[in-house]
Design brief:
By secondary structure, the protein is mainly alpha-helical. The protein contains 7 helices and no strands. It binds protoporphyrin IX containing FE. The site of protoporphyrin IX containing FE has 19 residues, from helix 3, helix 5, helix 6 and helix 7.
């Protein structure tokens, strides 16, 4: 398939696992000494944005772009220092979250590839 993550929403067929995934992910970020300082004190808006982005990217509703416009993810991450350590921490917490939200297990290989690749693309510091 050309884009192996584009239709995951159709198979999961519920938004709830997406919000649970994001909650689990941010539970890890919250305790992470490398990542926590990058995020705002109140993580609720960050959670909402990530959930809406993933819903859209994986074939669900397009509220993310209706509210935020074109994703421009690399540009949106430029204000934050993202090196290999930050990238690896992000990927680790997303992997831990995927371990817990078993609705995504059938797509695990494609998701791991997608998140690892996308996180590498966000690196903006040596
Ligand atoms: C590589 C390590 C990464 C770091 C350190 C990082 C960090 C951040 C930070 C600090 C913010 C701003 C706080 C907020 O508004 O939520 C943010 C926003 C965001 N990140 Fe990341 N991020 C990384 C990778 C990713 C990846 C791989 C994705 C998607 C698969 C992603 C999706 C988003 C989204 C959707 C937003 C909100 C953008 C908006 O303002 O609309 N990030 N990220």
């Amino acid at each position: 398939m050309e884009d192996p993550v584009a239709n995951i929403y159709q198979s999961v067929a519920s938004e709830e696992p997406f919000f649970r995934l994001v909650d689990e992910f941010y539970a890890g970020v919250e305790k992470d000494p490398i990542l926590r300082p990058l995020y705002p004190d109140d993580l609720s808006h960050s959670k909402q944005l990530l959930a809406l982005f993933l819903l859209q990217r994986f074939g669900g509703r397009t509220t993310y772009s209706q509210e935020r416009g074109h994703p421009r993810m690399r540009a949106r991450h430029m204000p934050f220092k993202i090196g290999v350590a930050e990238r690896d921490a992000w990927v680790k917490h997303m992997g831990n979250a995927l371990d817990k939200v078993t609705e995504f297990s059938p797509f695990r290989a494609a998701l791991d590839f997608y998140f690892q690749d996308f996180a590498t693309f966000m690196i903006n510091q040596p």
